[in-house]
Structures are given as structure tokens and as C-alpha cells.
Amino acid sequence: MSEWTHDDEPTGSELRKMYEKALKELKAVKSERDGLVQEKATASASQALQAKGYNPSVARFAAADGIDLTDEASLSKWLDDNKDVFKPTATQPESSNEDDPNPPADPAFTGDVVDAFAAVQRVHSAGTSDLRNKYESAMASLPEDASPQQVAAHFRAQGL
Known about the structure:
It contains 6 helices and no strands. By secondary structure, the chain is mainly alpha-helical. It folds into 2 domains: 11-91, no CATH class; 106-160, no CATH class. Helix 4 crosses helix 6. The relative contact order is 0.07.
């Protein structure tokens, strides 16, 4: 037996299996990353569209046309090119006090609702599998008819 051979070293077929497993895991991670990147780009585009008075769902049509949703100039050009199809839904209402940095809160959004929404945003922005799994587990154990306050309390109890 050679001094370079060790009985505990993997064989060629074992190395191949390890490589294929690692490659499969890499593809899964890349796929998850690509999905999160696309999700973030769509969310950013939806916000930009909403700020311009368009329905945020228009973002998916722009993406289907191959528009880079992270490039506001491309999105604006696409909107201009498709102005006969997509029109702003409504103009922004003029505020009587535009200098107020803290506009009055919508009474439908209580502190608990805002907290629950912030928890969901933290999960989506973190993008880690463990946090996502924790979120999915918390959502699965939540009753369908839970109030916003119950959702917020449930997320806090789960550490989200």
C-alpha cells in the first residue's frame, strides 16, 4: 500500500455522489436567490408604479416584456410605450398640508397590524431558509380567521 493511500478517503464514485449532492444544493440555493431577487424587483417596481398612480400589478406585465424592473428609466419608457394599454388608475389626492412629514394614520392600521406587517417584511428581506421556515410554520399554525391583532401576537410569540 502506498503512503498516499488512506482507507478513510472517499472513492471515485463516492466523490461523484458528493459532487452531485453539492451541485444539487447549489442549484437550489441559486434558484431561491433568483426568486428572492425577482420578488424584490417586482415589489420595488410595484411601489414605483403605485407612486406614479398605476396599479402595482402592472409590474408583472413589464417583467413579462423583459423590462428590468430595477431600472426606473426602462420602466418609465415601457409605461410611455404602453400608455394606450396601461393608464394611471387615479391621481394622487392633493394634500392640504404637504409639508407635514407625519400624515394622519389610517385608522384601519393599528399598531398591531403595522407590527405584523413589519414582521412579514423582516422575513422576506432576510431571505434565510431558517427564518422562512419559521415564518411558514407560524403561518401554518395560525387560524384562517385570525384578526390582525391575533396575527401580530402570534408573530411576537414565535419571535418574528
